Amino acid sequence: MAKIDDFRTMTVDQLDDELLKLKKEQFNLRFQKATGQLENTSRVRQVRRDIARIKTVAQVKRAAAVAK
C-alpha cells in the first residue's frame, strides 16, 4: 500500500497531473485491448484503481482546504 501513501504526500496539482497521465494510459490500454495488442491485461485494472485512489485523495484534500 505504499502507492496510497505516495498519493497522500502529493499536492492537489500534482494529483491532477498524475490523474491526467493515468487517464491517457487508460485510453491507450483500451485501444491496445481492442486491437489485440494488449500483453499485460492486469495493468488495466491497476490503472483503473489508481485513478480511483487519486480521485479519493484529491477529494479529501479539497474538502480539508475548504474546511480551513
What is the overall shape? elongated
First-last Cα distance: 28 Å
Instruction: Calculate Rg over CA atoms.
Output: 14 Å
Q: Structural class, judged by helices and strands?
A: mainly alpha
Give the oligomeric state of the chains in this entry, treating copies of one chain as homo and distinct chains as hetero: single chain
Helix content: over 70%
Run of helices and strands? HHH
- Total helical segments: 3
How many strands, which pairing sense, and closed or not: the largest β-sheet?
Answer: none
Q: What is the mean predicted local confidence, pLDDT?
A: 95
How many strands in all?
A: 0
Low-confidence segments? none
Structure, described:
By secondary structure, this protein is mostly helical. It has 3 helices and no strands. The chain has helices at 2-9, 12-34, 42-67. The mean pLDDT is 95.
Would you kindly provide a brief summary of this structure?
Helices cover 84% and strands 0% of the residues. With 68 residues, the protein is mostly helical. The longest helix is centred in the last third of the chain and has 26 residues, at 42-67.
Primary descriptors:
68 residues, mainly alpha, 3 helices, elongated
